[in-house]
Amino acid sequence: MNKKIQEPEEKEISKAVIGRLPRYFRYLAELKDEGVERISSMELSQLMQVTASQIRQDFNNFGGFGQQGYGYNVAYLYGEIGKLLGLDETHRLIVIGAGNLGQALANYANFESRGFLIKGLFDTRKEILGKKVRGIEIMPMEQLETFIAGNDIDIAVLTIPKTEALAVSKRLADCGIRGIWNFAHIDLDLPKSVKVEDVHLSDSLMKLSYAMKREG
Amino acid sequence: MNKKIQEPEEKEISKAVIGRLPRYFRYLAELKDEGVERISSMELSQLMQVTASQIRQDFNNFGGFGQQGYGYNVAYLYGEIGKLLGLDETHRLIVIGAGNLGQALANYANFESRGFLIKGLFDTRKEILGKKVRGIEIMPMEQLETFIAGNDIDIAVLTIPKTEALAVSKRLADCGIRGIWNFAHIDLDLPKSVKVEDVHLSDSLMKLSYAMKREG
Prior knowledge:
2 copies of one chain form a homodimer.
Chain A: H1 3-6, H2 15-33, E1 38-39, H3 41-48, H4 52-60, E2 72-73, H5 74-84, E3 91-96, H6 100-107, H7 110-113, E4 116-123, E5 132-133, E6 136-140, H8 144-150, E7 155-158, H9 162-174, E8 179-182, E9 195-198, H10 201-215
Parallel strand pairs in A: 3-4, 3-7, 4-6, 7-8, 8-9
Antiparallel strand pairs in A: 1-2, 5-6
Helix pairs in contact in A: 2-5, 3-4
């Protein structure tokens, strides 16, 4: 990563800005696929339905990504935001809980194209052990630590009931997992070195219901 | 809903506050289940690992929910936040796309306990039509409009590829759907009267990867 990006990192970047980075990345990926070479903040603003000033402010957190008058170089911007998001590195994942949701995630091949490789599934239910989902084997929880160590796993996806999630997350932290993508409906309590991203589906559905009630 | 809550609604409540409501609701549900009757903002603060001042500020958007010195009445607070979130009403849902993710959502019975009743599944693949998931039938897309009208459906869940999502979402808006829970990896473009809550799973995974790279 170049200096332009490293320097402004010293101040804390707001969660809101970080939360918008994947959306920029998604739009830039599409522009790149369509062969667009340059785009002004005004054009990007219209496309994404956010103000041009917000785009410039967001990008200024990371050094600005080039002159606004001339527009942004799409491929460069795509690459830089991808690097910020850690997409220039490969991640090796396991999914814990091979129920419907765990299998849905394991089947979603698009993650692989962004460098998120799902290497193993784990479950406690004996009757599904050994079964494969998209070639990925379902293994017993007893093999968790060995598999993580032997396959250089850095991310674990939790799709298990909340009653089990705390204990399993501590086990994962103990064996060096650096990131947990948590679908269990509970807040995990882990050392700061383990990053957690929650997907609380019920919370999201409640937000929809709030919006319908409030503004409907 | 009482006047205390209605009045402050006239000013706009920030997305961040709204985004925190489901988490308050979740903790209050647990406290209520445990038989806790009153809780101070300080105790709630410790439990939820947010500052007591943030809790008070958040609640003040909705009239405050009672005196802080004496603490909050758990059952009352649970009920009021539930009402804000529209959980005092029943919603009738359909899931469009009966793949792994659609079936996972249909199988998740916990939504029902919050008043989100999944009434139908839709798919284009002939080979799975008529199949049932937790008693819910998979129907062809041709029946969409008739089913929505005949079953008083207000929310549609989209778990279809992004290439189909725009057209399907317009069809849903045309037949009076008021809320869309969108798992398709694209921003929908609908009249303001249709509320959309996005769950972009790839975006969430990228945020995890960002955190791991940045602070790891």
